[in-house]
Amino acid sequence: MEPVVRPNAAHGQPMVRIHGLWSVFEGAERKTVVHQDLALEVAQGEVLSIVGGSGTGKTVLLRQILGLESPARGEIEVLGRPVAELGRAGAASCIGMLFQHGALFSAFSVLENIAFPLRELKGLPPALVREAAMVKLQMVGLEPEDGDKMPADLSGGMIKRAALARALVLDPPLLLLDEPTAGLDPESSDGFVTLLRTLHRDMALTVVMVTHDLDTLFELSTRIAVLADRRVIVAATPREVIAFQHPFIHDFFLGERGQRAMELLREYPFAV
């Protein structure tokens, strides 16, 4: 089937626009093409989830949107500006990133981790930096006393929340999530997904998420983009994606997890 990339026009102009994207990695003996002429748009206010098999470059795409990696060819725009032209401070001001394992600085306290982007990029007075970091600490459901703890003293769920607070401390309009519930027990995962839904609504965030977890995928996503055959083969509502004929989609949604996928289709209205 031909690719189906359906925009979510109800949410306004694109927050992210990717066109003509090629990602090529040099190996010892040959080049590997991960993305080939990939195209995708993310509308303001939506939650777009990216799924795909191993080696399809899901996290690579997030890192390219953030500007941490550069594609071999093509362009990525955020808020109408090429990411390559934003610079470190510009990218940090409009894009927040929650890495899969949190990526907290082990030598910094929780509050110091959250405050790091403010201190490094904004040059604010220390008292104001601490106050702003404390607001975000409590926004993600952590207690004021948690700010003095070190990352090694935190549970997996607390690490995720602290890393999320750091990702949001500059109030970026765009949030990138790499496997946000990976490694969490069911109770912590449910609480974190609820937090993400609340922040998406209250902060008017646009979210791009990579996840393999069906519950997280169906509860949060307004659209799903599927990476296969080196490109986005479909980007549409969950129901439309499941109906798309492709071997990966059949195996991912309708294989062993098919019953759960059908239950989730009935449970969630896909309107965040």
TrEMBL record:
| GO MF term set | ATP binding
Keywords, A to Z? ATP-binding, Cell membrane, Membrane, Nucleotide-binding, Transport
What are the transmembrane regions?
none
Domain ABC transporter: from-to ranges: 16-254
Q: Which InterPro entries match?
A: AAA+_ATPase (IPR003593), ABC_transporter-like_ATP-bd (IPR003439), ABC_transporter-like_CS (IPR017871), P-loop_NTPase (IPR027417)
Q: Is Nucleotide-binding found in the keyword set?
A: yes
The keyword Cell membrane belongs to this UniProt entry's keyword annotation: yes
Record's protein name: ATP-binding cassette domain-containing protein
Instruction: Give the taxonomic lineage as stored in the record.
Output: Bacteria, Pseudomonadati, Pseudomonadota, Betaproteobacteria, Burkholderiales
